[in-house]
Amino acid sequence: MATGHINIHFKSLTNPKENYVSNYEFNDDDQDIAIIPILFCDALSLWCHNYTEAFVEIPIDDLWSRFADMCTTYAIPPHLANKITNAINYIERHKDQYIGISTRHRKRRPKSQSIRKSQQCVSNTQKDVRCRKRTAHTEKCWIHLAKQNNLRIKPSNVAGAGKGLFAWKKPITRGKLISKYTGRKLSKKELDKKYGDGVAKYAVCNKRGRCVDATYTTDAAARFVNDSRGTSFQNNAKIKGNQMFKLKATKKIPANQEIFTSYGKEYWQ
């Protein structure tokens, strides 16, 4: 299957019949193909149904959001990061001239507490050399996380929850350690100072006021666990700890099933 390429056309605000064709072309090749289903899923879907040249109108603020989410969520090569950054900068400089943007009325997107980080996998291969794969989710690449920890990180079954933590090919027995909860160690006072009245979405604290803030995407797999509150799913794990926080199974978790834990009452207030 080949979609050819995707061009971004900016429609004029004063004359919708006119448009500016940007020089940001995303090609269906080994370098760019990975981002097309993410950034231009609607265009790809239409093309898959018609197999002809397809045009999809996307509001500029929506496209800007997709670019921003792409840069913060996925591990992408430098050339793509530069291409996306250039496109974002162009939109930022000219957004008042085009349809769908009004800086005076546009709602500011809340800043994400999750900080995307990419690093080399810390595990060794079968040849006893360090794995060369890069990862943006935990300190291990997805292959070693699955083989060594029986865990996968993929889209959650909870709508709008983003990524979720799953058991892989083997069931997880009750009481088993699933993952340590690692990150920056802070006191409750330091955490409150950092986030003010906001909720620290990736932090856990114990009754002694010791906290761990797992803001980086390369922190432990436990940071990706979701709460089943308001869904048909049930929590099947719990985070506890004194000197070190750990995510443990509170019941048997079948293979390929998502792992859930309670975030506590304070999170939902």
Automatic annotation (TrEMBL):
Sequence segments annotated as region (Disordered): 101-121
InterPro entries: SET_dom, SET_dom_sf
Highest taxon in the source lineage: Eukaryota
Pfam entry (one): SET
Polar residues compositional bias, start-end: 112-121
Protein name per the record: SET domain-containing
Species for this entry: Paramuricea clavata
